[in-house]
Amino acid sequence: MTTTTLKPGIPYVISAPSGTGKTTICGILRKKLPALQFSVSHTTRPQREGEQEGVDYFFISNEEFERKIKDKEFLEWAKIHNNYYGTSFTTITAHTHKGRDLLLELDVQGVESLRKSDYPAVFIFILPPSLEELQRRLEFRGTESPEKIALRLETGKNEILKYPAYDYVLTNYIAEETANDIASIMCSEKLRAGMYTPTASDIQTLLNQKTNASCSPAPLKNS
Fold first, then answer.
1. Which of 74, 148, 166, 191 could be a cystine partner for 144, CB 3.0 to 4.6 Å?
2. How far is residue 153's CA from residue 150's CA, in Å, rounded to a whole number?
3. In angstroms, rounded to a whole number, what is the distance separating the alpha carbons of residues 3 and 128?
4. What strands, in cross-sheet order, belong to the sheet with 57-59?
């Protein structure tokens, strides 16, 4: 009797400067790949129009977030523009331990925190086409003052310099095309030798296959 071990799912971490379009891209991926699970992060920032509790984020108070930090409930967390963001251990393990691939949308500071923990994941960084386009996208949101937008742009410049820490780097010209590129990355990661775990029955089936080929060497042709 043979037993098999369930292969853990692959966590894919998507990160980008604020306003680059990572949330839009992740939304497209979730529609394209229904089997892909999405890690819902916790945050203390105000809920934006159209966002849903437990779908986009878990919106909690500063006091509750700091309690979770104290209780070591987060795999990673960071404070960005005076708001906390964090990913809980339970959110991650609930999916990957069941063999499900997982999509994580993190800010650059969150990725740095995750890297320090040696968490095994595929890290993907998304660049804006230009700083001018990044500013236009931030202004288009209509949710922040010019001062906050200027702060996000300065932060974004520093974050762009950290692209070498990622496994893949893409420029987001069109969100749909960028999502397709990321889906291709996910497919290629599945084909990596280290990700393939054949079962005992898989190997036995392979070895039991019959072939028509002869084991004797082919005769030499006269020149």
1. 148
2. 5
3. 48
4. 57-59, 41-43, 83-88, 74-80
Give the 3-state secondary structure of residue 44.
coil
Joined tokens for residue 223: 């020149």
Report which of 202, 166, 189, 192 is spatially closest to residue 33, judged by C-alpha positions.
189
- Any residues with CB less than 8 A from the CB of 2 and at least 6 apart, and which? 199, 200, 201
pTM: predicted TM-score of the whole model, two decimal places: 0.75
Nearest to 142 by CA among 48, 205, 63, 31: 48
pLDDT tens digits, one per residue of 96-121: 767 789 999 988 988 988 888 888 89
Q: What is the mean pLDDT of the chain?
A: 86
**Domain parsing of the chain, residue ranges:** 11-189
Place of tokens 């999509």: 103
pLDDT at 1: 40
Task: Classify residue 58 by burial, with Cβ atoms within 10 Å: 0-12, 13-18, 19+.
Answer: middle
Going by the DSSP 8-state scheme, the letter that residue 168 receives in this structure is E
Whats the size of the chain, residue-wise? Answer: 223
What phi and psi values does residue 204 have, to the nearest 5 degrees? -65, -40
For the domain made up of 11-189, give the CATH fold.
Rossmann fold (3.40.50)
